[in-house]
Amino acid sequence: MANRFSVHRQWEERYRQLILLAQQLPPLSSVLKQPQIELSGCENRVWLGYQRLDNGNLHFYGDSDGRIVRGLLTVLLTAIENKTPQYLRQQDPLILFNQLGLYQQLSTSRVNGLQRLSQRVLTIVSSGILN
C-alpha cells in the first residue's frame, strides 16, 4: 500500500489511486448490506461488518456508494484485516492514512466519515461479543 502512494506526490494522483483501489474492493452483496452495519451520518452510504475467524482474528468487509469512500474504505480494511481484537484496541485504525499522506488532504466531511469508521472498528473490538 505504501508503494502505491509514495510514488505519487500530487493530490490528484493520490486521488486517482483511491479510485483505482475502490475498483478492487469486491462489492458487498445486498444480503450483507444490513442496517445494523450501515454507518449513519456519512455523505455516502457506508457499510462495515466483520466476522471472527477460527484463529480469533477478525475479518472485516464493507462497501460504499461513493468511489472515493470505497477507496478510503479499502485503505482502512488493509490496516485492520486479519488482526486480533487486542491489536486493534491498541492501534489507531487511521494511522495508515497519516503514513500514506492521505489524511491531511481530505475534506472535513471525509475526515468525519473516517472517524466514524474508526469508531465503528473500536466499537466492534470493544464489544463483549469478542471477549
From TrEMBL:
A UniProt-annotated Pfam family: SufE
Signal peptide region: none
Active site: C42 (cysteine persulfide intermediate)
Listed InterPro entries: Cysteine_desulfurase_CsdE, Fe-S_metab-assoc_dom
Cross-referenced SUPFAM superfamilies: SufE/NifU
Domain Fe-S metabolism associated stretches: 3-121
NCBIfam families on file: FeS_syn_CsdE
Similarity comment: Belongs to the SufE family.
The protein's name in its UniProt record: Putative Fe-S metabolism protein
Organism ancestry: Bacteria, Pseudomonadati, Pseudomonadota, Gammaproteobacteria, Enterobacterales
